[in-house]
Design goal:
Elements: E1 20-22, E2 34-35, E3 41-42, E4 56-62, E5 68-74, H1 75-87, H2 91-104, H3 108-124, H4 128-141, H5 146-161, H6 168-175, H7 183-199, H8 203-222, H9 241-260, H10 267-294, H11 299-319, H12 329-363, H13 369-387, H14 391-399
Antiparallel strand pairs: 1-4, 2-3, 4-5
Length: 430
């Protein structure tokens, strides 16, 4: 089972491990003799009788009872045991055994898979740097293998987690040229590439990559014959996480551009910026709603949350408009009353969208972090609207030419979630 997600971890200390490479002989400890044709005995085994024995390793660990426990394992058994630990999310023990294989054996396939799976285990522990090292080893040492292709996708995820977005496009450009890629993997390469460009704020290139992804999948669907049995060329369904996230990414691009516009005087500039801001608002909303409509259990609630956030941002961006400096105290009081009355439908719309998002998430049986964020937003806006909590402080900040809140919707959220993409650990040597 393979996956393009994972998680890093530290290289385990081999707790008092006793490492002994043994050659298991057919007869215990003594030298073997063989009769020759002339009846003489020799201490040399004829070449045709030489037997190759499976190397084994003896490893010792200290158990919970404080006792030292030793175990002798051959290579396949050791690899299988490491895989069992990995499946059980016992990353430390899986790394300990994969490390033994890497250090003590020279069988390429097992060593290669142990490096790959060590990357997966390290990702599980959040050690993206060590995971990267294992994936690079697979790519550089066994470049023509399928595992090297999968390692490219995992390495791209590690780069993204480490904030090294500039390293992702070139890596995905190489990956997409690999002839063994399925259609799904090709779409994932485009998605990772687009997400990296978005994080680098190359918005035009990011949008082009997302739209290319969607267009390629549409063309694949148009020519798809369900009876062909060619699963490698199967188009992605709209609800697939890759398609849903591509629409979400387009929404994010226009949301970011929308948030960059601050409403300032003079009047002519204000009017022009308001037209631009309104257009960007609609483009962001279209992207998010397209993601909502896919019905993906992770990205649809994420996009639903962002539609509410978009209306909130509109409310606060207009509220934070530059105030004419000639207003006296009475004029300021009237200004705030009129402006808040004008903006009231926007903040109420945000609240309704959050409430609708909770209903949708329930239907999709989603339990992602976006659901918890939506619940918090519902309570926060209900209090904000009914009790006018914080209104006075916001007005003082705006009069001091400060925005009452910066765009902080991305804090703590995972915009590069690997939900729905292929490739986990390799748990069998072929």
């Amino acid at each position: 089972m393979r996956s393009h997600y994972s998680s890093p971890m530290f290289a385990p200390a081999r707790t008092g491990a006793v490492l002994l490479m043994l050659c298991v002989l057919a007869q215990a400890c003594g030298g073997r003799t063989a009769a020759t044709d002339d009846g003489l005995e020799s201490g040399v085994v004829p070449l045709e009788e030489l037997i190759e024995f499976e190397p084994v390793v003896v490893h010792a660990t200290v158990g919970d009872d404080g006792e030292v426990h030793t175990q002798m394992s051959d290579l396949p058994s050791l690899f299988a045991e490491a895989n069992d630990y990995l499946r059980a999310f016992d990353y430390e023990n899986s790394l300990r055994l994969y490390g033994l294989i890497i250090d003590e054996f020279e069988v390429d396939e097992f060593v290669r898979l142990s490096h790959y799976n060590s990357g997966v285990a390290n990702e599980g522990l959040g050690d993206w740097t060590t995971a990267s090292e294992h994936y690079r080893t697979v790519i550089e040492t066994w470049p023509s293998t399928e595992d090297a292709t999968y390692a490219m996708f995992r390495l791209a995820e590690c780069h993204a987690r480490l904030g090294e977005f500039e390293r992702v496009p070139a890596l995905m450009d190489i990956a997409q040229r690999r002839i063994e890629l399925t259609h799904r993997e090709l779409m994932e390469a485009h998605l990772r590439w687009g997400n990296a460009l978005l994080e680098m704020r190359d918005f035009a290139a990011a949008e082009a990559k997302f739209r290319e992804l969607i267009s390629r999948n549409d063309m694949m669907r148009a020519g798809w014959d369900p009876e062909s049995g060619d699963a490698r060329r199967r188009p992605l369904d709209d609800w697939d996480g890759i398609i849903s996230q591509a629409h979400f990414g387009i929404g994010r691009i226009y949301h970011e551009l929308f948030s960059e516009i601050r409403m300032v005087l003079p009047h002519a500039v204000y009017e022009r910026d308001l037209v631009d801001k309104s257009q960007l608002f609609q483009q962001a909303l279209d992207g998010y709603l397209a993601s909502v409509r896919t019905g993906n259990d992770y990205w649809s609630p994420a996009a639903g949350y962002m539609t509410g956030q978009l209306y909130e941002d509109f409310y606060f961006d207009i509220l934070a408009s530059e105030i004419p400096d000639h207003f006296n105290e009475l004029e300021l009081e009237v200004y705030w009353q009129e402006l808040r009355a004008f903006l009231q439908p926007a903040i109420e719309r945000a609240l309704r969208l959050y409430q609708h998002n909770l209903a949708m998430a329930h239907r999709l049986n989603s339990d992602s972090e976006w659901v918890a964020a939506t619940v918090e937003s519902v309570y926060r806006l209900e209090d904000y609207i009914t009790s006018q909590s914080g209104w006075e402080q916001e007005q003082l900040l705006i009069q001091d030419e400060r925005h009452p809140r910066s765009a902080g919707y991305s804090e703590g959220m995972e915009f590069r979630s690997e939900r729905g993409t292929p490739h986990a650990a390799n748990t069998s040597a072929r």
